[in-house]
Design a protein that fits this description.
This is Nicotinamidase-related amidase. The chain is α/β, with parallel strands linked by helices. The protein has one domain: Isochorismatase-like (Rossmann fold, 3-Layer(aba) Sandwich), CATH 3.40.50. Strands 3-2-1-4-5-6 form a six-stranded parallel sheet, sandwiched between helices. Strand 5, helix 7 and strand 6 form a beta-alpha-beta unit. The longest helix is centred in the N-terminal third of the chain and has 18 residues. The protein is globular and about 45 Å long.
Length: 183
Amino acid sequence: MLMQRDDATLLVVDIQDKLLPAVLDPQGLVERAGWLMRAANDLGLPVVLSEQYPSGLGHTVEALRQLCPDAPTVEKKHFSCVAEHCLPDSLLARRQVILIGMEAHVCVLQTALELKAAGKEVFVVTDCISSRAQSDLDTALLRYQQAGVWLVSREMVLFEMLRSSGHPQFRQISQQYLVPKKG
C-alpha cells in the first residue's frame, strides 16, 4: 500500500520543549522531523500538531512550529490523540495518517493503534520517532509491526508523495531534500 498525498495527513505528536531533552537523539529528531515537515509543506501535505499537557510539558518546539505556522495544534491529556477526541475533521476525513513524534512507545503508539482500530491506514516514520530508552523504542517498533501499522522512512514518504520523476516538483524537491549519501 502506498501513501497518497490527497489521502494523507502528517500528524506530529508531542515534540515538546520540556520532554525533548529526555529522549534519544533529541537534536537529530528535531532535524529529521523538520526535514519531513518542510517537505510536507512543499508538497501540499496537510500537517497537524499535537501537544500533551502543554501547561506542564511546554509547547511544540519553536523550530518546528515555525515550519508550519498555520497547522492546527491540538491539546490533549490522554496519551492517544484519538482517545482525546481532539483531532480536526480535516485529518479524520482522510484515510491515511503519517505519524512522527514522541514518545514512540506511549503517545505515538497509542495514537497509531487507535487510528488503525478506527479504520485509518497508519504509517509511522521510523526515523522521526524517539523514546527515552532504546528498549522502549525497539519494543514500540515491534508492536507497530504486530498491529499492522506500516513502518516507513522520510524518503519513502517523499517519494510516495511524488510518485514519479515526471512530477512537476520532482527536480526542485530532489535538489532540496535528497543530498547524495556517502559510502
